[in-house]
Each structure stands twice: as C-alpha cells, then as structure tokens.
Input
Amino acid sequence: MNRRRLARAVAENLRALGVTEVATESEADGILDDYRAGKRNRGKELSREMVLKREAEVVERCRKCGLGLQRTHAVYGDGDEYAEILFLGEAPGAEEDRQGLPFVGRAGQLLNRLLEQVGLRRSEVYIGNLLKCRPPENRDPLPEELAACRPYLDRQIAIIKPKIIVCLGLYAAQGILNTKESMARLRNSQHNIGDIVVIPTYHTAAALRFPGYKQQIYDDLCRARDLAYG
Output
C-alpha cells in the first residue's frame, strides 16, 4: 500500500472512531519555537498567556494515546502564566474531566484552603498534571500515556519558567524526577531540575483520607513559598 492510500485508510479509521482533528508534535513544537524566537502575532509579541492558550488548543485535539478518545475534556492547566510555583499532580479526576480544569474537586478545595493558610492565592500559582486526560476509573497512568504527554509538560514548564515545582503525590514526584523512591525519602532530600527546585509532598486527596498528611503538606507549602518569595 502506498503512502497516500495508507494515509487515507488511517484517516477513515480515525473518523470511524469519532476523531476529527489530530495534533502533531511538530505543530506543538512550532508554538514553543515561535515563543522563544519572539515572533509576532498580528503585530504583538507572543505572550506566555497566548502561547499557553495555543498549547492548550493543541492538547485538546491530541489523540496520541487512547485517553484522547475517552475523555470529556483535556485538562491542560490553570493559573498565573508567570507563577513562581507550579503545582503538579498525577492526572485529572472525574470533576476535572467534566470542567476541563485541574484540582476542582474535593482535593482541589483542600489545596485551595492550604494555599490560603500559607498566604498564597490559587490565582498566583499555576496548577497542572503529568497527564492532561483522565485515565478510566482514575487508574494509574500507563507508561505509553506518560510518554505521549511528557512533551506537553516539558513545554509547559519551559513557557512558565517556575522557580519551584511542588509535586502533589508520589506518582507525580516519581514521574518528574524519574525515580522509584518512596515519598518519605523524596520529602527528605533536595531535588532540582536545572535551576528549578522540586518539592515532593503528599497529594491532597490522600490528606482527605489520612488527615495527618495535612500538616506535612502545609509544611512543604511553607517551604515552597519561602524559596519562591524569600
């Protein structure tokens, strides 16, 4: 089968599955390249807000793994594009999938309260996840799903340029740091990705089940705040 016939067959199969648009890796890379090069859009230099919006549109069309065919909405991220602190969870849950926003369920409400307690506002941080789509029944992400989504996360970090990444939960910490260490070990060690300080802490969903974790999350948020703002 020649390339044209093969492409037509693939397109027909995708349409049968309900896929109408497919984002390419080169398209997403081009967005970041434009931003880094300071190219202009309608006479205005691309801002972080604009480039993140364009990235989110690419993610919404993404079908690089099966999650793109099952989700209600992709959940790219939310917050201040100039944030000093980026919060990173594992993946969207049911409420996040419904609204298209990260950390808007019970775990997100607890995160909001903890942020207020340490003197931070949700509007001045940025919140995202390793995965941009919800796994069925909130199962653990599969390696191929993490690999498909990782370029989006890497570009997101490159655009926002946070000083601190707070990993909410063991899976997020292990994923960003490429390790299998326990949360106890990770919390008691220094971690960096280039110039970015990485602070692993417990997920607020875990704190809803085990209230003792709230104090430890609070302590880690205080550390993130102090490192970010002095």
Remarks:
- Strands lie at 40-41, 44-45, 78-79, 85-89, 126-129, 164-168, 192-193, 196-201.
- Confidence is low (pLDDT under 50) at residues 1-7, 9-22.
